[in-house]
Design goal:
The protein is an alpha+beta fold. The chain has 10 helices and 14 strands. The chain has helices spanning about 1-10, 10-35, 85-90, 130-135, 145-160, 165-170, 230-245, 290-300, 300-305, 315-325, and strands at about 45-55, 60-65, 70-80, 95-100, 105-110, 120-125, 140-145, 180-185, 190-195, 210-215, 255-260, 270-275, 285-290, 310-315. The longest helix is centred in the first third of the chain and has 22 residues, at about 10-35. The structure holds 7N-methyl-8-hydroguanosine-5'-diphosphate (M7G).
Length: about 325
């Protein structure tokens, strides 16, 4: 961040111009999305440039394109079939036979529109980093020593990481305030718990919540020391209680973890339903909160001193930095 303010001092006009451009891009996107209440279909003007990735198995497609002349990424995802909708699906759908053979038959079933939804996520204006994030790319496992963190990773994330404005909007109740499920307002130990935007909250099978700390100065797992154990324990205990109360899901049904590396460098904890194969829940990126607490209890500087492993995609600038430093 020091670099950014230094640049601001050197070249205030350039910075003002780029911040004006960013403001204009945001306004263009808001207008195109119909945020101003003009009631338009937010995506009717979307022009596809390229399909970044898709998955027939996950029923998702990630598309890069233009919305009101601004770069945008649109993610479309067919929503899961809910058990409580089965009766209506069976009674109110139309069926077209595709083939029949002995005891087997397949059909095209046309469910009523409200049971046949596609979840759409729009990122506008999208940066180059967003476009890269959603593109399918080969990954490489990186071995990051404590020294590598100081000399390679930290300088890189201070210059290149995603904006956490959306996080501040949540903490300041400027966005998603009606979605907050639980809050502990304590500035040191407190946090906000709310549905991750990957979860449409229609079914518990893919439950996904995030707890975002009120403390703004903890970037990631690497910053944690034994000093943060009370904060982590508070999140672990109160968020699980809130989830039990609201969704009747006990702790034994939850996977609670932090990502390293995260995409957003403001400490947050992921809560997903055990059994849901959430993106990023693999061992190369997810660190169970219970393990993190125990590791810090055993060694106050565990995460400051340990070598940590994580995957980076081929187009990730951080990977190039590791390569340039001869660490890969
Ligand atoms: P992460 O570990 O920093 O990175 O997690 P990842 O996105 O690579 O997993 C950030 C989490 O915040 C992810 O699970 C995102 O889906 C979620 N998220 C990101 N944004 C921009 C928002 C948002 O605006 N609102 C909410 N509720 N969740 C978000």
């Amino acid at each position: 961040m020091a670099d950014v303010s230094a640049k601001r001092q050197r070249d205030p006009e350039a910075t003002n111009e780029s911040s004006n451009q960013t403001k204009k891009a945001k306004t263009d996107c808001e207008t195109a999305r119909g945020d101003n209440g003009n009631g338009t279909n937010a995506l009717s003007g979307f022009q596809t440039t390229i399909v970044l990735s898709d998955s027939a198995r996950e029923k998702t497609i990630f598309v890069h394109g233009k919305l009101a002349d601004q770069n945008a990424v649109v993610i479309l995802e067919k929503t899961p079939i809910r058990e409580d909708a089965l009766a209506e699906i069976f009674t109110a759908s139309t069926l077209k036979l595709e083939m029949r053979n002995d005891i087997y038959s397949t059909y095209r079933l046309q469910a009523p529109p409200h049971l046949n939804e596609i979840k759409a996520t729009v990122v506008c204006p999208a940066t180059e980093k967003h476009v890269n994030k959603y593109q399918r790319r080969e990954s490489f496992l990186v071995e990051e020593t404590a020294e590598d963190y100081q000399s390679i990773t930290l300088p890189y994330i201070q210059k290149q990481s995603f904006s956490v404005q959306w996080v501040y909007n949540i903490l300041d109740k400027k966005a998603e305030s009606e979605r907050i499920m639980f809050e502990d307002p304590d500035p040191k130990l407190g946090f906000v718990l709310l549905p991750d935007f990957k979860w449409d909250q229609k079914q518990l099978d893919d439950l996904y919540l995030i707890a975002i700390t009120h403390q703004k100065n903890i970037k990631s797992l690497r910053d944690l020391t034994s000093e943060h154990i009370p904060l982590l324990q508070n999140i672990f205990q109160k968020a699980r209680e809130a989830i039990l109360k609201r969704y009747s899901l006990p702790a034994s049904k939850l996977r609670v973890y932090l990502h390293y590396q995260p995409s957003y460098y403001h400490l947050h904890v992921h809560f997903t339903k055990l059994g849901y194969d959430a993106p990023g829940c693999g061992v190369e990126r997810a660190h169970l909160l219970a393990d993190v607490i125990q590791n810090l209890q055993a060694d106050p500087n565990y995460y400051k001193t340990r070598t940590l492993y994580f995957p980076l995609r081929a187009d990730d600038g951080l990977l190039s930095q590791f390569k340039e430093a001869g660490r890969l």
